[in-house]
Design goal:
30 helices, eight-stranded mixed sheet, ATP-binding, disordered N terminus, Isoleucyl-tRNA Synthetase, domain 2, aminoacyl-tRNA deacylase activity, Rubrerythrin, domain 2, 38% helix, alpha+beta, Leu-tRNA-ligase, Isoleucyl-tRNA Synthetase, Domain 1, four-stranded parallel sheet, Leu_tRNA-synth_edit, 922 residues
Length: 922
């Protein structure tokens, strides 16, 4: 057992979590914190002691009934696919979420921090085939390994909430939600052209095909096929999903808002549903035709198809001798409101229109449509007269603009379209011809057609298999499973053999976490009303399109069903950047090399065998590029805390993290500095009292108070508002450097130093929990400040707070030039309004004369992390006043450059001098 520092005084204290039997003996006997042994070996032994204690504390906390009395904070990290081992990307995302979770716990919140497994999908199935075992066995084994690795990372996950999407107890409710969508008319089946992988024998999304038209997984040339597929009508929610983006914080979602908007597109029209017939028989599936003119739906004369359409076949030609330009088909469409029969025509006129599968012929607004209708002898009604609608039933007398929304609502009420969307956006194809996925709960009956499985018969479980050897493991192979009875007529029927796209499983898991043991409904309304929405969602930016789009669609639907009370599921979104590492490849062949194949003896790496100079780049970690880093190896060598800090320090979470072993060197050096600070403070406190110059004490205490207040405030802002852990670590480094300057005699008598040093330990605790526990235990042997519960866990302490009355300077900048500053109390800074800022700024003549008159159209940007206010003003003068100000700004920049050349050191004084110079010029 690792020895720790404890004096006899420390041993005599009462501890909430640690009995005396847990204390380690060596430091207790010697009473020394020898800085020479603060190395990775010691740090790892510290973790061996503290990890089980922290894990048990996490279990005890979750059982505490008082937790439910606290305000909630739901921090969610995107759950992983259980591939078998964590990679550095996993380490980064789960470290970030854990740091925020621990911070919010210390802030007095009931933290919801769950973990689960996105367990279905093709990768697991293929891996199982390669190994000759079942996907179930492969997946469960990987979950066991990765769960152990996550626990080794000292993450404070609530494992009582654990779920796996491959559990029947979970996918039962995925099927339940699917059936709700089916009842709402959002789930439907149709023949559609798909990307078919002939090796994996499944449908591929466009994103799964490389630039050569090959499957990114199997490498096979992708084929185009028509298959009967299941879809979810996501386009019905296009406008709702666009509007919902105004409810999220754009500063935190950043470009994800524009990514989502661009994916959905501008909602300029809607689809109209038409039944088809061929002769007197209903033909095929209904078709949905996009139009930007739903108000003219009573003026439709025909439907036009491009020549590439599959209905362009001689077997459907009405007259084989018709010219190639316009070919009328035997297939006809039925008007959804009037039952009027509309001709269907194949025409080259639509071939140049991108993304249009078919279009409506409306002669009133298109001379091409009118000529085609007249040429084919198609009768049509004119519906526009003097700017108003006629021959349009309930739309008569309305302008087109007035009738636009009225006509859409009519279509929605008749369940034949009408939802605002974009012509390019497609519905969600959810069918997968694979075994390892959620079965679609539909039964096909020769008499009753598609029949939903009754709710009481859910889940429709996958058939159990022991091994997987065939490249294709579609459910079509399991004939005994397929054969069933129709729940409607009792006759012989067959189960649907497609499984669902795994994106369905991950589109609602954040709701199930909150009520994971519920056996009667997917989740209780009471629980989701209390804990939703998610306060912070952490995950990779690669999921900023599809996953977020589908998860938001699910939540919007559940809101309309009355199952949740919030339309948007996520308040704050933190998309972390990739973990990058250096890759080495040959210039001639572009072949990637392992590090062992590279000669690093020269400043420019070369290939060992050939001496060829290599292309060295920072690229996303990848097995194929041989630049991956195994987190387990680093944890084994340096410890968990060092790995956690190295993966977040010095960079925004949203930025790329260039990974190298040098990160550990910096982390270990900083931890050693903290260790020495604690050791030195314990030594001086255990020494006899020595006199200190009162003026010297007062001078240093004033400095320490400023250092502590600024650090506490900026770390709080970084964690609470910006989620910028890299900024927080920078502030911690700065505080350590400052505290190292304090003389020993001042340390001994300064309550401000003890407070600053202890707050440092508390501030770093969410990042390096084991190390912080050890340091706080040491401080507990000599600590006396009343702010802390000495002897308890560091996580029992309240989060440090800056002194509310402490005054700080707020710099005012225009176009990144510092002009003047004003003072505010730290306690009011986070509540500072634009009116408050303007009130302070108007005290300056420079602001009143130049900035206020021309800033009105620009936003005031209060940067809490930088303690500044920024005004963005026109860079090119428009009015005479603007031109004068721009000229003065140019002079000010020249003045700044002169100061720099003079090596002017007073950074705080420089902008004031510059402002005075500018005022003199005024």
């Amino acid at each position: 057992m690792l020895p720790t520092y404890c004096t006899m005084r420390h041993l005599q204290r009462k501890y909430k979590y640690w009995s005396k039997s847990w204390f380690r003996s060596l430091f207790s006997q010697t009473g020394k914190w020898d800085e020479a042994i603060c190395n990775s070996d010691l740090l790892k032994r510290i973790e061996e002691h503290w990890k089980p204690i922290l894990q048990q504390r996490n279990v005890d906390k979750l059982k505490d009934p008082d937790q439910k009395k606290k305000p909630k904070y739901y921090v969610l990290s995107m759950f992983p696919y259980p591939s078998g081992n964590l990679h550095m990307g996993h380490v980064r995302v789960y470290t970030i979420s854990d740091i925020i979770a621990r911070f919010q716990e210390m802030r007095g919140k009931q933290v919801i921090h769950p973990m689960g497994w996105d367990a279905f999908g093709l990768p697991a199935e293929n891996a199982a085939i390669e190994r000759g075992i079942s996907p179930e066995k492969w997946t469960r084994s990987n979950i066991s390994v990765m769960k152990s690795q996550l626990q080794d990372m000292c993450c404070s996950f609530d494992w009582d909430m654990e779920l796996a999407t491959c559990d029947p107890e979970y996918y039962r409710w995925t099927q339940y939600i699917f059936l709700k969508m089916y009842e709402a008319g959002l789930a439907y089946q149709k023949d559609d052209i798909v990307n078919w992988d002939p090796v994996d024998k499944t449908v591929l999304a466009n994103e799964q095909i490389d630039e050569h038209g090959c499957s990114w997984r199997s490498g096979a040339k992708v084929e185009k096929r028509y298959l009967r597929q299941w879809f979810l009508q996501t386009t019905a929610y296009s406008k709702s999903l666009v509007d919902g983006l105004s409810e999220v914080d754009p500063d935190l979602w950043q470009d994800v808002v524009s990514i989502q908007r661009n994916w959905i597109g501008e909602c300029t029209g809607c689809h109209i549903k038409f039944q088809l017939r061929n002769g007197e028989e209903t033909f095929g599936d209904p078709v949905y035709v996009f139009t930007e003119c739903p108000e003219l739906l009573y003026g439709i004369s025909h439907i036009v198809l491009p020549t590439s359409h599959r209905f362009n076949s001689p077997k459907y030609y009405k007259d084989k001798s018709m010219p190639d330009s316009d070919i009328q088909l035997t297939i006809e469409a039925v008007h959804p409101l009037t039952n009027q029969i509309l001709p269907v025509v194949v025409s080259k006129t639509t071939d140049t229109e991108d993304f249009i599968e078919m279009k409506l012929g409306i002669p009133d607004i298109s001379h091409v449509d009118k000529e085609m209708a007249d040429r084919l002898g198609v009768k049509w009604n004119s519906v526009i007269e003097n700017g108003k609608l006629v021959n349009s039933h309930q739309l008569d007398g309305l302008t087109r603009q007035e009738a636009f929304d009225v006509s859409r609502q009519i279509l929605i009420d008749h369940k034949v379209g009408g939802h605002l969307t974009n012509s390019k956006l497609k519905d969600w194809l959810i069918s997968r011809q694979r075994y390892w996925g959620t079965p679609i709960p539909i039964i096909h009956c020769p008499k009753c057609k598609a029949v939903p499985v009754p709710y009481e018969d859910l889940p429709v479980k996958l058939p159990v298999i022991d091994t997987s050897t065939d490249r294709s493991t579609s459910l079509q192979q399991y004939t005994s499973w397929i054969q069933t009875k129709c729940p409607r007529c009792g006759g012989e029927a067959k189960r649907e053999t497609d499984t669902m796209d795994t994106f369905l499983d991950s589109s609602w898991y954040f709701l199930r976490y909150l009520d994971v043991k519920n056996q009667t409904v997917p989740f209780s309304r009471e629980k989701v009303d209390h804990y939703m929405p998610v306060d912070l969602y952490v995950g990779g930016k690669e999921h900023a399109v599809l996953h977020l789009y589908y998860a938001r669609f699910f939540n919007h639907f559940l809101y309309d069903e009355g199952l949740v009370s919030q339309r948007e599921p996520f308040i704050n979104l933190l998309t972390q950047g990739y973990v990058m590492a250096k890759s080495y490849r040959t210039k001639k062949e572009g072949r990637y090399l392992r590090p062992q194949q590279v000669d690093f003896s020269d400043s420019k790496p070369t290939e060992k065998d050939t001496g060829e100079k290599l292309i060295v780049e920072w690229e996303k970690m990848s097995k194929s590029k041989y630049n991956g880093a195994d987190p387990q190896e680093f944890i084994k060598q340096y410890g968990v805390d060092a790995t956690r800090m190295s993966v977040v320090a010095g960079a925004k979470p949203s930025a790329q993290r260039n990974w190298s072993n040098d990160l550990y060197t910096s982390t270990l050096r900083w931890k050693a500095a903290v260790w020495r600070l604690v050791r030195a403070y314990i030594e001086v406190k255990n020494q006899g009292s020595k006199a200190v110059d009162p003026d010297l004490l007062r001078e240093h205490e004033d400095k320490i108070k400023v250092w502590r207040n600024l650090c506490v405030f900026k770390v709080f802002v970084a964690f609470e508002h910006l989620f910028n852990i890299g900024e927080a670590t920078a502030r911690l480094h700065s505080l350590v450097n400052n505290l190292k300057k304090v003389p020993a005699d001042v340390q001994q008598h300064s309550s401000e130093f003890e407070r600053a040093l202890t707050d440092l330990i508390l501030l770093m605790a969410p990042i390096v929990p084991n190390f912080a526990e050890e340091c706080f235990m040491g401080l507990s042997s000599v600590g006396s400040h009343s702010n802390y519960v000495w002897g308890n866990s560091v996580f029992d302490q309240s989060w440090p707070e800056a002194d509310k009355d402490h005054m700080v300077d707020i710099d005012v900048q225009a176009n990144n030039l510092e002009l003047f500053d004003f003072q505010v109390r730290l306690g009011s800074l986070t509540e500072l309004t634009e009116d408050d800022i303007m009130l302070q700024c108007r005290k300056e003549e420079l602001f009143v004369k130049y900035i206020e008159p021309i800033h009105s159209s620009s936003k005031i940007d209060l940067r809490l992390d930088k303690l500044c206010v920024k005004f963005e003003l026109p860079s090119a003068g428009g009015s005479e006043l603007e031109q004068e100000f721009v000229s003065l700004i140019k002079e000010l920049r020249l003045f700044e450059n002169r100061l720099k050349k003079q090596k002017h050191k007073d950074i705080k004084g420089r902008p004031k001098m510059s402002a005075l110079y500018l005022m003199n010029k005024c």
